[in-house]
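Troubleshooting log. The previous run stalled partway through. Resubmitting the same two chains, unchanged.
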Amino acid sequence: MAKRSTVASLSALPDGDVVVAGWVDTVRDQKAVQFVILRDETGAVQLVTKAVRELDPEAADSAERLALTELIGTLNAGTFIRVTGQLAHDERVKLGGLEVKISALEVVAEAQPEPPIAEDSSIDKRLDWRFLDLRRPEANLIFRVQTVFEHAMRTWWVDNGFIEIHTPKLMASASESRAELFEMQYFETTAYLAQSPQFFKQMAQPAGFGAVFEIAPAFRADPSFTSRHATEFTSIDAEMSWVDSHEDVMAMHESVIVAGLTAVAEKLGPQVDAAFGVPVVVPTTPFPRIPLAEAHEILTARGYTVPRADGDLDPEGERQLSAYVKETFGHDFVFVTDYFTSIRPFYHMRHEGDSNLTNSYDLLYNGTEISTGAQREHRIDV
Amino acid sequence: MAKRSTVASLSALPDGDVVVAGWVDTVRDQKAVQFVILRDETGAVQLVTKAVRELDPEAADSAERLALTELIGTLNAGTFIRVTGQLAHDERVKLGGLEVKISALEVVAEAQPEPPIAEDSSIDKRLDWRFLDLRRPEANLIFRVQTVFEHAMRTWWVDNGFIEIHTPKLMASASESRAELFEMQYFETTAYLAQSPQFFKQMAQPAGFGAVFEIAPAFRADPSFTSRHATEFTSIDAEMSWVDSHEDVMAMHESVIVAGLTAVAEKLGPQVDAAFGVPVVVPTTPFPRIPLAEAHEILTARGYTVPRADGDLDPEGERQLSAYVKETFGHDFVFVTDYFTSIRPFYHMRHEGDSNLTNSYDLLYNGTEISTGAQREHRIDV
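Second attempt completed without errors. Output:
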């Protein structure tokens, strides 16, 4: 069977025979002509055929054309079809300046006449029919952005000599707080789901790996129903030896984010802007850095006092600080540094001059904390 | 602090000041001169200094040099050090044709005098001290090969428009056989660990993703203690729409393996050959294909009858078939195709002409099954 062409590839092809395949977006069944908007994973294209409503004994292919016209008349939105036809570039066609004249159309998988979700369906209903909801071009685009972003990050790490590791998700003991631990029967004993690859990536340093990264699931038995908590999430981790301070870690952190956003801007920037009205901005480096104590002063000056007794920023504090950074430096990112020792785990290194502060940071992006970093404490006797 | 140079980068640097860091491999403490072989994640380098055994009142740095000599005399193998010195290219130095004359040496983390594992330690003991065992260059190399191989595969997928997905590992129901399912308490209900991303990657097709891939952990509660079973493993998965048959899947499968092995051969081929005595061979395409029924005939002709009643190949059958392919075609890989319907899951498509056979395959590599593929059955009424 002739190979299908993706919709996105059509604009570069010459006029002539093509095979396209995807699902029916809409059908316009006019008296003399029929249009099908076909969508695939790369875009949408207009298919067209003259409608043949009656048998014409003098035309050899009349029965075939009549059957095609009737078939198109029955197509439901969402039905998967494969179409053989002739590509014709034509500036007058609004959708991409080209169309495909249908020679033959095969129904591969038929959709129900009434789709279970519509434009205005609730999020719960959409999630019940997730595979249909993902056909929306904006939903598809999110996964493409993720693919490009991750691949650019991994490429930066690989090009810089980092080793990719796959750490165990079934563990014999907890890696972070025991409170958020999923527990399970493991044959005769008990296992826990990894909350983080933290200790494994740290142990890769005395193993002499130099620098490592991992993108993998992590699990936290956290029943909070907020956008900041999830029982399962994809954790992006890196760790490297021989840093002088957390400044080296922040420099690496900046580099992978810039690599990721550069790739997204180049490959998908216009699509993201068109779909979401958000231009993809590649940030300048270095990102602004603000010590936590100074962040509190900035927030106080803006009339906001962080309510948390331990001094950590709350979500509103993060939003306010990002707003300040945007106004002052025109930057989407900010490293909040030098967290108090009392609110950081034991493996964050203390300041050389002040044991109440750590060589650590959180990274905020447009008002939300997206990651945490630190220089590790390797001294057993601290 | 001056940035460290990796050992591998030294050969391209001019003579002059450098910082190197890693762990002590060996110390040769001679009367007049001391040598330290330093190892890092990229290789090994010889450090050298004149031994100063007595204070010389006429030399300004005499006390400092004496202290350095004494410090080097106490270094244990495995101790992490950071060294400032002068790089000198010198053809007479067997190890890489260069050495570093030590100016200053800092002990960063001291090793015990007696390492808990040695060259001849048992595998159990090695695994107890995994982070030390991984310092062996051959162990490190395995992870570098994995990194390069995976990245080349992902690059092929990304370049060919595949979307990377991260499918849930906590599931509400089983995805394969219920027998090998890990079960756990999930708040008020029960969850299962994903045995495979199978159904998610299939559902990505009606979602209109076109083609997807994932490299992620999978879990099987299989207590067998063989090299072919593991409770947790890294599963490499891809799935694509619009295939004409499993031939299209095999073509993709070949392409990613060739991409992976090409990258390994280019970047690490000589190291792999030196460490393991195994040249990295990039296979020619297409790989040989042998239908399962024909495989049985070949094995019978070699005097081996597969003992399994269901007709699937056993490990010895796989080894024998790979030996035949190596002798006959000089190839390390073979696709065994057209598996009997009775030994394949329901989602493997049946042959158009013979419902007892499926459009499926296993891939053998040097005698071991490394993967399984098939055209999916999308017809509900089969």
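Takeaways: The two ends of chain B are 69 Å apart (CA to CA). Chain B has nine helices and 15 strands.
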